[in-house]
């Protein structure tokens, strides 16, 4: 279990009482890679405070997925926070991109912390701001960028998050995360390889220019 100094460093908070309350009310859990931890329409009972690993958050429309953001170490799911604070069901899906260790903070405890501690309120606002900028960036890519640029940026982001020299991802996975089809992605990846941006191997994708 984390101790108070470790939790304060993880969340970048200075208030010891907030850290104490989080540790008292949360449970530490290790979740296997590929585990679906939240579905659209589900009642959100808790939020994850990620200690290690990566969670992928995405939405689904007409049987197509669209990646929204990743939750990394020291972060949480702001869409789940929003659902809890507004007494709404989840509007997103979340799946473990890697094995994940997280503190699971119950909805009731989140509301109490949000109401009782201005510093925790500020922490939530910082999460909102970070995700807002990420989603704005995603929207700009969708509207203005060609698919090959979107695919390359997606691969670079994924490599940074997963810290893999050879990115182990299938063409189908890329298509799902970008809301398109595998055949289109395969053509784009071949184009990027011909341009010298990536190298396609049996083990995965190598990004040549970062």
Beta-strand proportion: 15-25%
What is the number of helical segments per DSSP (H or I, 4+ residues)?
8
How many angstroms does the end-to-end distance come to?
37 Å
Looking at how many chains there are and whether they match, the oligomeric state comes to single chain
CATH-assigned fold name of the largest domain: Jelly Rolls
Binned, the helix content reads 40-55%
The domain count comes to 2
Secondary structure category: alpha+beta
Strand and helix order: HHEEEEEHEEHHHHHEE
Outline type: elongated
Task: Write up what this structure looks like.
By secondary structure, the chain is an alpha+beta fold. The chain has helices at 4-11, 16-25, 78-85, 107-116, 118-144, 147-162, 171-178, 182-194; strands at residues 27-31, 36-38, 46-52, 55-61, 64-71, 93-96, 100-106, 198-201, 204-207. It has a four-stranded antiparallel β-sheet with strand order 2-6-4-5. It has a three-stranded antiparallel β-sheet with strand order 1-7-3. Strands 8-9 form a two-stranded antiparallel ribbon. Strand 4 and strand 5 form a beta hairpin. The chain is elongated and about 55 Å long. The two termini are 37 Å apart. The mean pLDDT is 93.
């Amino acid at each position: 279990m984390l101790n108070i100094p470790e939790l304060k460093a993880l969340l970048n908070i200075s208030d010891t009482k907030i850290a104490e309350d989080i540790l008292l009310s949360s449970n530490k859990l290790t979740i296997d890679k590929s585990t679906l931890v939240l579905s659209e329409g589900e009642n959100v009972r808790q939020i994850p405070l990620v200690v290690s690993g990566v969670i992928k958050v995405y939405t689904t429309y007409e049987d197509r997925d669209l990646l929204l953001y990743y939750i990394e170490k020291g972060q949480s799911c702001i869409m789940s926070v929003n659902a809890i604070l507004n007494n709404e069901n989840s509007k997103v899906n979340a799946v473990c991109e890697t094995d994940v260790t997280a503190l699971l903070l119950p909805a009731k405890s989140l509301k109490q912390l949000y109401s009782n501690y201005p510093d925790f309120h500020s922490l939530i606002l910082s999460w909102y701001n970070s995700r807002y900028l990420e989603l704005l960036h995603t929207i700009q890519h969708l509207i203005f960028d060609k698919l090959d640029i979107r695919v390359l940026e997606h691969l670079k982001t994924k490599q940074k998050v997963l810290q893999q020299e050879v990115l182990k991802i299938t063409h189908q996975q890329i298509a799902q995360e970008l809301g398109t089809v595998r055949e289109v992605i395969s053509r784009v990846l071949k184009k990027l390889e011909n341009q010298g941006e990536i190298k396609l191997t049996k083990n995965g994708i190598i990004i040549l220019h970062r």
